[in-house]
Amino acid sequence: MPHEPIQTLLNANEEWAQSVIKDTPDFFTQSATGQNPKILWIGCSDSRVPESVITASKPGDIFVHRNIANQFHLDDDSALSVLTYAVKVVGVEHVILVGHTNCGGAAACLKIVEDAAANPDASQPDSPLTRWLSPLIARVQSLDLSTYSATEALNKVVETNVMAQVDNICKSEPITTAWADPDAKKVTVHGWVYDLAGGRINELVCQEASA
Questions:
Q1: Is 144 designated active site?
Q2: Which entry of 3, 23, 26, 46 is annotated as an active-site residue?
Q3: How far is CA 7 from the centre of its chain?
Q4: Which residue in 103, 109, 170, 190 is the catalytic one?
Q5: What count of Cα atoms within 13 Å lies in the side-chain half-sphere of residue 168?
């Protein structure tokens, strides 16, 4: 049956909705009136890192933006529009950039850099993915990973990537404006790494407005 995965999702949705109504009869009617999340989650598109599931959150708890390798480019209107809306309209208090172990995007950047080092005269691949990852590829090229094992190198890239994206978020107009305004709601920017093998989150960095 070619559409079996889709029907499975629809059936699961029906069961979930019935369960929610049974436990909290007015949940959906209240949810339809508006949202007031305190968190903006900027994460990876990887199917193994669903923000609501791994944090045991409910609909309405987390405002979300996800993309390949949890990037935040300062010229990306999609990410910037989400951040702007989250900070200036929704009123979130925490922006969390979340990477994860065994990230396919980070691994792809490592491979591109390794292949280029092994064959400097070869033309580099050009695709939407490589263009999207080009800042991370450049960052990997700047790292000295010669003494690292393959696993250690990938973990280093993942962590370096998180730190770089947090730095980009802190430089963005919505955050700099919020931090410069003493009357604005306080916004804290966090950098996390989710461990796929253990199911736990590790906080790498937390940035707040200077006093």
A1: no
A2: 46
A3: 28
A4: 103
A5: 21
